[in-house]
Design goal:
Blueprint (H helix, E strand, L loop, with lengths): L4 E6 L3 H16 L3 E6 L3 H4 L5 H4 L7 H9 L4 E5 L11 E6 L7 E4 L14 E3 L3 H10 L4 E3 L5 H9 L5 E5 H6 L6 E4 L14 E6 L4 H11 L2 H17 L7 E7 L5 E7 L8 E7 L4 H25 L1
Helix pairs in contact: 1-8, 9-10
The structure holds ligand PBG.
Length: 309
């Protein structure tokens, strides 16, 4: 093990590279050798269509999985949020980094913007979840689609596309754009997407168990893992990826239980779809599945069918 160099596959965007270097450092702190292998994915190449139109299935993961399968890399580093809920039988998530603050923020290059429920600002986002939530809580805002990596999006905003961008705090912070944050969105109304703020490590199931164990030991945060596995159980039951307006967040309570809340962001005027449970830590995946079942049974199935058309 000491002699083996762990090959870390990553996308080439700055955020992906930050996350991959972060994982590399954690491995090196545990006395492992590691190197990065940079891989381009379909999601990085296609920038002219919104993500929901390309289809969520594996646009950021397919090429990485190919390399996991053929041994070009040992592990792949992803934003947990970008991972489809059901991996192929050949792959598994073997570690989750300690979660960063997982809320969404507005960033802007403009000063003195007044941001409240009646603001008539132009907001850039490409997430169907964020669009649905924004329509409800910022009814006077105009929402525009913006694709590309964080740097591209910020440039488009500065070029006049929008007043603010709605982004995950985690990515903004990792890219050191904290100075541009003009508003923080609360978790209870703008509940994040599954896995937001966490970096997940994927491997082929056939990866040498000694390497798997070493990676897990160096990188995995068990408290985060419990929560994200619960959120992913929710997403799996919904059979969704990042192209549906699903939200789910699991957090630890003070007495060491887990509070899990999830649902679908609905168009304005329709009854909200959100269910919340507080459960023992070993029941969080069951709770996630249950929330998805209730979501589907209470208007969610119809909403998803409508969105497909
Ligand atoms: N959809 C892209 C994506 N995937 C992960 C992050 C941010 C980092 C994270 O949530 O861990 C982002 C950017 C964003 O949503 O603003």
């Amino acid at each position: 093990m000491a002699e083996r160099i762990i090959k870390i596959g990553t996308r080439k965007s700055k955020l992906a590279l930050w996350q991959a270097y972060y994982v590399k450092e954690l491995l090196e702190k545990n006395n492992h050798k590691a190197e990065l292998v940079l891989i381009e994915t379909k999601g990085d190449k296609i920038l002219d269509r919104s993500l929901s139109k390309i289809g969520s299935k594996g646009v950021f993961t397919e090429e990485l999985e190919e390399q996991l399968r053929n041994g070009g890399i040992d592990i792949a580093v992803h934003s947990a949020k970008d991972m489809q809920a059901s991996l192929g039988d050949d792959f598994e998530l073997i570690a989750f980094t300690e979660r960063e603050a997982c809320h969404d923020v507005f960033v802007s290059h403009k000063e003195g913007l007044e941001i409240n429920a009646s603001s008539e600002i132009v907001i850039g986002t490409s997430s169907v979840r964020r669009v649905a939530m924004l329509k409800k809580h910022f009814p006077n805002a105009k929402i525009v689609d913006v694709r590309g990596n964080l740097q591209t999006r910020i440039q488009k905003m500065k070029d006049g596309l929008c007043d603010v961008l709605m982004l995950a705090y985690a990515g903004v912070h990792r890219m050191e754009y904290d100075d541009m944050i003009v508003h923080e969105l609360p978790l209870d109304t703008f509940t994040p997407a599954t896995g937001q703020g966490c970096v997940a490590i994927e491997s082929a199931v056939t990866l040498d168990s000694e390497v798997k164990e070493a990676v897990r030991k160096a990188i995995n945060d068990e408290d985060t893992e419990r929560c994200v596995r619960g959120e992913r159980a929710f997403l799996k039951e919904l059979q969704g990826g990042c192209s549906i307006p699903a939200f789910c967040l699991a957090t630890w309570t003070e007495d060491k239980q887990i509070n899990i809340t999830g649902g679908l962001a609905v168009p304005e005027g329709k009854p909200q779809i959100r269910y919340t449970y507080t459960v023992d830590a070993d029941k969080v995946e069951e709770a996630g599945t249950q929330i998805a079942k209730e979501t589907l049974a209470n208007g969610g199935a119809e909403l998803l069918a409508e969105l497909k058309n």
